[in-house]
Amino acid sequence: MPTPTDPSPAGATTVSEATTPVIEFRDVEKCFGSNVVLKDLNFTVERGERVTLIGPSGSGKTTILRLVMTLEELTDGYIFIDGEPLTHEQRAGRRVPVSKKRQKQLRTRIGMVFQQFNLFPNMTVLENIIEAPIHVLGRPKAEAIAKAHDLLEQVGLSDKADAHPTSLSGGQQQRVAIARALAMDPEILLLDEVTSALDPEVVGEVLNILRRVAETTNVTMLIVTHEMGFARDVSHKVMMFDGGHVVESGPPEKIFTDPDHERTQAFLGAVLGDN
């Protein structure tokens, strides 16, 4: 897992004061046909910062994560990882694609946990976890296996290394997916509604694992969730999205207790209750 840091009294790690953001969206636009999902989007995520995106379904939150993971292509604008252009750059006054090799190198710094687990059903749990470290990062197999067993112990599945995903519950599969993402030692971890496909009784165990990751590492997190308690607990910053725009942004204690924008107030009122 990424380098441990000392949690603050509130259980949050300290955000680095590095001047270059880990993630920067600059004038980003994303369209699906004639549907403009994101327009003139600008925001940054600092090193070690945990930023949660909230808002109604269809507001563009998951699209943001998929753009960072290069699972969707930008229509216009730029995304930077540690100051380096992820998919497009300015060259001789023109917006041009970066090389696939460069893009692939940047992607190795990013891990993502999806709603639907996305595990390989023909592989065992252990094989799922070691596949990318060996074939993408070039790590020795013995090293990858040792790390995988350590991660499985951390997520409470040390006895499931030889099982196949289809034999596991949804909560167990999502814990494997978290271990798989962490096996790459990501600088950035993207979490896309990781509990939305789970039965209510197992949501808590998955969120508790992610809380421990947040409290014991300095990994930068960009989170999409409807679990407002989790967002409040782990976030340094919360961004309210609606219609592809940032409506309001601030620390969780401000956003959840005294939001300025009426759209944020209405959304949280509907999700949390007006009291």
Automatic annotation (TrEMBL):
Keywords: Amino-acid transport, ATP-binding, Cell membrane, Membrane, Nucleotide-binding, Transport
PROSITE patterns assigned to the protein according to its UniProt record, in alphabetical order: ABC_TRANSPORTER_1, ABC_TRANSPORTER_2
GO molecular function per UniProt: ATP binding
Domain of life: Bacteria
Topological category with respect to the lipid bilayer: Peripheral membrane protein
Location of the ABC transporter domain: 23-268
Subcellular location: Cell membrane
InterPro entries: AAA+_ATPase (IPR003593), ABC_ATPase_HisP-typ (IPR030679), ABC_transporter-like_ATP-bd (IPR003439), ABC_transporter-like_CS (IPR017871), Ectoine_EhuA (IPR014343), MetN_ABC_transporter-like (IPR050086), P-loop_NTPase (IPR027417)
Matches recorded under NCBIfam families: ectoine_ehuA (TIGR03005)
Family, as annotated: Belongs to the ABC transporter superfamily.
The name this protein goes by in its record: Ectoine/hydroxyectoine ABC transporter ATP-binding protein EhuA
Organism: Nesterenkonia aethiopica
Gene behind this protein: ehuA
